[in-house]
Each structure stands twice: as structure tokens, then as C-alpha cells.
Amino acid sequence: MPNPTESFLTSADNSTRIARYTWLPEGEPHAVMHIVHGMAEHSGRYAEFAAFMAEKGYVVVAHDQRGHGKSRSDAASAGSFGESDGWELALSDLRRVHESVRAEYPGLPYFMLGHGMGSLLVRSYIIRWPGEQFGAILSGTGQLSRPLVALGLMLARRELRRYGPDHRSDRLRSLIFGRYNRKFAPNRTPQDWRTRDKAEVDAYLADPLCGKPSAISLYVDMLGGILYLRRLQHHMHMDPHLRVLFISGGQDPMGGSGRGVRATFQTFVKAGMKHVKMRLYPGARHDLLHEENRAEVFADIHAWAEQRIHNKTAGKAKKTNG
What whole-number distance in Å separates Cα of residue 46 and Cα of residue 1? Predict the structure, then answer.
């Protein structure tokens, strides 16, 4: 398995060093895959998938989001995007990393893969900066009900005012993630909802950079982002020709066991997106890239990306030849 090179960029607000990791193929690369990780985890968890894509000729890039992995200014910032406007800061960091990769590998097809909270950021990104990506893969995404989002946001803002932005809320964590895990009772661990692969669950629990309680400010940021993404009019700003792949476990509670994924897929279709595809994997849970059938998922992502590249290349050749 190839080892990534590690580098650091200054965050959008100049307060944090953002850790970036790059896996390079042996030969000349023909595309870029940028991984955007989820909540309470870090880029290193995606080494297996990154190595797989690098072996297929992709430059693979991942960055630790602010307050995650090695992208921390101090201990207090762990599990937090910032005391205020964290979603905007995380989006700006994502753009800064994207621009750095674009400058190094100009002209290559650029795919962004976002997982969980990372998928929400990628969805926000392709609304804010349309036309900058060739394709987007949205893993473990969904559409929470408006009442649940409103309740969560009300509780989060109340605790933020009472205890401050760095407060850790057991109540809010239980409201969201406790509900997810109950679906798989009797539970072996608090993280059973992530994947059927027990070794992967145990690796997550043993990882000192995973699973730590997030700051209340991060819940406010994320729930605010989800509320933003519930509005159809925002999706109308996306590039209608962007290639989008939705992948989710059929038993992923974050995606409503497929219901929320289908609802989000339909939102993209209603917004006029012309190249949208969805794949649900029966029995799989939230962490598809760490699931028992991850070899199948890896192969499907690669095949989809290669087909998109082939279609674009063929289209250009057809236009050139008249």
C-alpha cells in the first residue's frame, strides 16, 4: 500500500494548519480524487480506498478538516470548526485545498468524494462554486426531516448560549447518534450503526483521532448546513452537467435506510441535474468504504468515474471530428 505525502496549508481564517495527504500513482495520473471525510474522524481512515484509486492512476488527495485529525490549533479546537461561522470556514478550507491541488494538476478530471458530514460539505461546495468539479460522489448522505433538524438546532443553540461553543452535549449526541444505533439493537458497541464489519468498528473505537465528542458549535454548524441543503432553490445554482453519484448503505440510518438518499436524489433531479446516478447496497450501513463489501464499492466508484472520463473524452473527439 503506497504511503501518502503529508503537507500543510494555512486555513481560510489563518488560525489553523490544515493537514493534506496525497497518494500518487506510479505512472502518469489521469484524474484526481479528493476525499472529504466525515464527522469525528480523519483522512487516514481512507488509506485503503486511496491506495486502490492511486493504483488505478488517480492522484488521491484528502485533508483533515479543521478540528479533526492533525488540523488543530490547540486541544480546545478538537471537534470544532470554530466558535462561529464554522460551516463557512470549513467550506473555505475545502476551496483552498481544491485550488492547491488544481494548481499542481491542471487539466485533470477532478472528482470530489464526500462522506457523511463531508458529503454535506461537498453538496454545499458544488452549489457555491459550480463548474469547478468534473464529478461528485456523495457517500452516506441523506435528508433529515425538517422537525428533527429544527429540534436539534433549537437544542444546540440553547446549549451554545448557556455553555459556550466548546461545550460537549451528551443530550444532542444521544438525540442524533443514539437514535442511529438503536436500529441495530442489541448493540455490541455505540458505533454498530457504522458498518457490519466488526473489525472496522473496533478500529474506529481504538483510533485516538476518531469518535471523540464534538463541540456544540459543530452541531450548530452542521445542522445549519443541513437546513440550507433542504431548500430546492439553492440546488438550482449547481452546474447541471456535473456528474453526481449517490452511494449509500441500504441500512444506513443517516440516509433513512435509503429514504433520505432517494429524497436528496430527487432534489437534484428537480434542480435540473442531467447526470445523476444512485446506488444503494442492501444490508450495508453508514461507512460504505469500511463495509464488508467495500471491494465491490471501490470497484463501482472506479468504474463510474472511468465511464464519466471516457464519455467526456469521446464527446470531445466527436466534436473535433465534426
Answer: 12
What digits encode the pLDDT tens for the residues 70-92? 998 764 478 999 888 999 999 99
pLDDT of 124 over the 90 cut: yes
Considering the domain architecture, whether residues 12 and 102 belong to the same structural domain is answered as yes
Residue at a domain's end among 223, 250, 280: 223
Is-contact 239 207, C-beta < 8 A? Answer: no
CATH of the domain at 30: 3.40.50.1820
| pTM > 0.90: yes or no | yes
| DSSP β-ladder status, 243-249 and 275-281 | parallel
Q: Record the cell numbers describing residue 104, joined without a space.
A: 499542481
The per-residue pLDDT for range 16-64, each reduced to its tens digit, is: 899 999 999 999 999 999 999 999 999 999 999 999 999 999 999 999 9
CB atoms under 10 Å from CB of 9, counted, come to: 17
Q: How far is CA 72 from the centre of its chain?
A: 19
